[in-house]
Amino acid sequence: MFQVRIHGRGGQGVVSAAEMLSIAGFLEGKHAQAFPSFGSERMGAPVMAFCRIDDREIRLREPVMAPDALIIQDTTLLHQVNLFEGVTDGGYVLINSRRSVTELGIDEFFAANPGINVQTVPASQLAQEHVGRPVPNAALLGGFAAMTGLIRLDSVLAAIAQKFDGKIASRNQAAAQAAFDCMQRAAQGEEAPC
Amino acid sequence: MLKQIEGSRAVAEAVALCRPEVICAYPITPQTHIVENLGEMVKAGDIKGCEFVNVESEFAALSVAIGASATGARAYTATASQGLLFMAEAVYNASGLGLPIVMTIGNRAIGAPINIWNDQQDSMSMRDAGWIQLYAETNQEAVDLHIQAVPLAEELSVPVMVCVDGFILTHAYERVDIPTQAQVDAYVPPYEPRQILDPAEPVTIGAMVGPEAFTEVRYLAHYRQMQALGLIPELADAFAEQFGRHSGGLVRGYRQDDADTLVVALGSVNGTVKDVIDQLRERDVAIGSVSVISFRPFPAKRLRAMLEHASRVIVVEKSLAVGIGGIVSTDVRMALAGTGIPVHTVIAGLGGRAITQDALRDYLLRAHRDAVERVTFLDLRHDVIHREIERLETQRRSGPVAENILRELGSVADRIG
Asked: What's the whole-model pTM score?
């Protein structure tokens, strides 16, 4: 089983991100479960959503306590919420930011946990370019596909098309594709991949 | 057709396939997505011959359903929490009049303190209201129970609540097999009412009944629910034949045959319970579980047959009878009367507190050694309650308990579980 926890704030599409990831998993023939954890249902409040993907039926209903991957949609949560709690060794952390991990001031944690892979991608910026609004969720899923290889980009794009209609879908697909490309270029060592 | 969709959407699609004629509902979290989806389907003309009635309250929602059902329409509504309490008088009327309404409960805690999250206190508060109550373990079962609820209600002329854990199921995306209209049409026959308000053949429904007949009318309500103990498994068997999967029924066991410790639970927590049972079985703990799907009627005989070889029974409850402990436990003890099997209650998941594998496993290991109290509150924060009890004992004006505890806990934004 592969478990993902997504952190963000109300209005940033955190819940939709988990749902789309579960659809992408489903499209690849896997069992997938996505569900939200609402604090208070209002814009700007911290929100978490979870996604589990497995080859067999998922029965577990607890929140994801030990994520194999974390997606952080909002860096203002970094020093407010204990975001990295439970991340597994060998796991992935993908952060929505234009800045590097060092610039974000979170080097210390990853130096102490060298088994955890961490990367940033400017998902809000890419969303602003392609969608016209800084809603980073679809772009982050494109980045997630590139970073982990656990889900195919075409599954992510198909999931976006199931969740949204018409232009909103195609624009979010473009943002996901852009983030995917960015991260691939970054992996090849390009200086300014985005 | 297999779909990856939200539980609420899946329930709405199942209800639509049952060809309802009147849907009336008032939105309340976490039920809202169900009726929003149905409203859109009716507006789009996807449910033929169905009217969606916007109402001003939950009391009106069920009252309209009662009126619609009495005129021979297949009527549906949905609610949760305070909404169910607000319609309480109509809840008793629907069953007392014998009107086969199907209602989804998106299970949620009851305030005060106000809380939007899941437990089962709402439907439990209506356990004696004369409705059949079915509890879904997964969103697939939620779909299947709605399809089974319609012929069950209409055959017996008894209303049915299908209880679906709020957020945990209503807001969960998971794989669901939505049947075709032809499959559902073959399983759910057209509504043939036992009583109908028809100007051509006038009758009264809802007469005043005095002491001369009230007991007999009430007895017949009980009699019909006892008939449901036979009809529910029959409908589940017919469902398995028609749809190719087992869903519903009275109870369902898991690794229970040779178990010394048996866990009884209702609804979605059974999934986590099964995972924990598998982990404990690997450690050679002889443990199993029984999911109670039909809580009303209560399948006492069937349950006794499944539990009576165990050394102890643990009831996991998402509700609390203040002043006694467990609600389900009381019925389980009655089912086991005379066997001497100890029944322990664990109150868990109140107001949306996560029921984790770790907490459940630790508790069950202790229970398996008989090292638990009669009633345990899972994951109770003893430090917090002790400080509040001390405040209550030392200060006359100790203040509101909920606010005191929130102040004590500070920010909760950093909690994952």
From this structure: 0.97
